[in-house]
Write a structure and sequence with these properties.
Layout lengths: L3 E4 L4 H12 L4 E5 L19 E3 L8 H4 L5 E4 L6 E2 L2 E2 H13 L6 E7 L8 H15 L4 E6 L3 H11 L5 E3 L4 E2 L4 H14 L5 E4 L5 E2 H12 L5 E3 L4 H9 L15 H9 L1
Parallel strand pairs: 1-2, 1-4, 2-3, 4-7, 7-8, 8-11, 9-13
Antiparallel strand pairs: 5-6, 10-12
Helix pairs in contact: 1-6, 3-4, 7-9
Protein name: NAD(P)H-binding protein
Pfam family, one: NAD_binding_10
InterPro entries: ComplexI_NDUFA9_subunit, NAD(P)-bd_dom, NAD(P)-bd_dom_sf
Length: 266
């Protein structure tokens, strides 16, 4: 196995990738502004001996040093924020590509989201712009688009039901996937080498949010009135159409929503 740099190694997906690389005893380095990110989305706690180097994608600080001797880069850093007048993902990807052009890296693997090419949402448009930058570069690449992670949807439903009365957009469609399944596919792509294409990957089932909420309430033993939110606006209409899903690209080895709830809440 060659040397790997995990950019964004302290996030949800990044922490899972780091854990897998540690388990596989791979030669890797985790790069991020902070070594450990403890928040509501975290899925894996990194040990204090995780090989880590500080990099700042907003400025490019630390990238040149982190890329020394690296063959493969996971670009997993993402945020729905702006740096000046540009989206973070665009600035971060441009800075990374500039550094890669001065390195010996042979494969860039970028994590994106299913639906960024059709859904009119600022964060998704930024992800699509980052994809285009990668596709237009001279860096050998593979882009993996995944659907939403279980723990993110778990968090979102909990927020929607945090008041005495829940307000749920029942008609929206989601295809939840386990973060470990996405991690396994990313690790496979390291071994497969550059594909020069975009790959979609979704969970084993497509649900409507109303059904997911009912299952969540049952698993959490929550009982309260729930009022449906009407489907209004271009974003919600796209989600109701299932533009954020890929039914023909199901990861059958991923836990479905019911299995995730049983594993998480018993």
């Amino acid at each position: 196995m060659n040397k790997i740099l995990v950019v964004g190694g302290s996030g949800v997906l990044g922490s899972s990738v780091v854990a897998t690389l540690q388990q596989e005893q791979a030669d890797f380095l985790s790069g991020s502004r902070k070594p450990i990110k403890n928040d509501s989305y975290s899925v894996v706690s990194q040990s204090t001996n995780t090989p880590w180097q500080r990099i700042d994608l907003a400025t490019g600080e630390g990238l040149r040093q982190a890329l020394e001797g690296v063959d493969t880069v996971f670009h997993l850093a993402s945020a729905p924020t702006k740096i000046g007048n540009e989206p973070f993902d665009v600035v971060a990807t441009r800075n990374l590509l500039n550094a890669l052009n001065q390195s010996d890296v042979k494969h860039l693997i970028y994590s994106s989201i299913v639906g960024v090419d059709t859904i009119q949402y600022s964060y998704y448009r930024a992800k699509r712009s980052a994809e285009r930058l990668i596709q237009a570069s001279q860096i050998p690449y593979t882009i993996l688009r995944a659907t939403q992670f279980h723990n993110l949807l778990d968090f979102a439903i909990g927020k929607l039901l945090s008041l005495p009365i829940g307000f749920i957009p029942r008609q929206l469609k989601v295809q939840p996937i386990h973060v470990d399944t996405v991690t396994a596919e990313l690790y496979r792509l390291v071994q497969a080498g550059p594909q020069q294409t975009i790959i979609n990957l979704g969970g084993p089932k497509v649900y409507d949010v109303g059904t997911m909420t009912q299952l969540w309430m049952k698993a959490r033993n929550v009982s309260k009135p729930v009022i449906p939110i009407p489907t209004v606006g271009s974003l919600m209409k796209s989600l109701a159409k299932g533009e954020n899903t890929c039914p023909n690209k199901k990861a059958i080895d991923s836990a479905d929503w019911e299995e995730y709830l049983r594993e998480t809440y018993g």
